[in-house]
Amino acid sequence: MKLGILTFHWANNYGALLQVYGLCETLKKIGYEVEIVNLCPKKEKKDLRYYLFSRPFYTFRKRFLPVQKQIFYSSEEFLSFNFNHDLYIVGSDQVWNKEITKSHKYSYFFDFLPNNKKRIAYAASFGISEWIYNKEETNNIKELINKFHSISVRENTGIILLKKHLALKASIVLDPTLLLGNFSDLINAKSKNTNEIVCFKFIKNKEFYDFGLKLAALENKNIRLLKNNRPMRGFKWSPFLSVSQLITRIKQAGLVVTDSFHITCLAIIFRKQIIVLPANPKRTGRITDLFKVLNLEDHFYQSYDEVLEKQNWKNEIDYKRVSSVLNILRDESMNFLKHNLR
């Protein structure tokens, strides 16, 4: 059986590539042939700096992701396409957040598929807790989503939004990063723990750098920036990391500081101490939902001062319990896939 996957494989973003790799590898392990539907944003003129930054992601896609050769830049370009997949999956990631999908917003509800093609959503996300589609968009989405065989989402907010605005029920499943739970094929098996503090932050400012230096002094550890393409005084520096190098750095760390959901997932997979500080308060649902289930709320903070004052992130995480809960969630997520891919 051949499956077509529609997600953000094109993004120069570690989390986006981790989740699509996780879903592809999981599906291959249970016996399916997979191919990523190559829907991409329109080409834009890029400068040298962009190509330096994007090269690690391009290399990863080429080596590890089964992306179809033909590129599509709009739903209209699918009109002459031979839909030779037996079933189509949309997800994971914020595929239903129109602030990201923009002109492709209906594409991620499969507006281009023939009516006879089976389709499901796996761990799809709206990204935020508010419904941002207008009345016309909502009616169009309702028509498209009612063609789905089954729907699963990543957050409780997705369950609420689907029920309130589209009168639909959905299941909650794990993000593919946690579903796979094993990235050993991508890392150096000989890597040794450095016990460093590693920071992966989307939003950084002077306050963040001051906080990082205080945290390093408090812990008496080296501190490394993983998402910085220029050096900063007092910090170790890892520019233009490949996906494999990033994963290895997380595995080697003693403490992970991040605002990224998928870096948080990696930290959990490698059983690390975690400090999570939100980048965008409107998009914290995916982390807060996960932390509530895993009893990790003590590792989520609203400010740098709160981290330094409370210091309850020092409490050792009971990863035996976390693993037990994750195993149950993996079984439920795998059952959703196996049942709906028949």
Structure notes:
The chain is built from 12 helices and 11 strands. With 342 residues, it is α/β, with parallel strands linked by helices. It folds into 2 domains: 2-180, Rossmann fold (3-Layer(aba) Sandwich), CATH 3.40.50; 184-324, 3-Layer(aba) Sandwich (Rossmann fold), CATH 3.40.50.2000. The strands form 2 sheets. The protein has a 6-stranded parallel sheet with strand order 2-1-3-4-5-6. Strand 3, helix 3 (98-101) and strand 4 form a beta-alpha-beta unit. The longest helix has 22 residues, at 319-340. The model has no long low-confidence stretch (mean pLDDT 92).
Specify the biggest β-sheet.
6 strands, parallel
* CATH fold-type name of the largest domain: Rossmann fold
CATH architecture assignment of the largest domain: 3-Layer(aba) Sandwich
State the CATH class of the largest domain.
Answer: Alpha Beta
| Mean pLDDT over the residues | 92
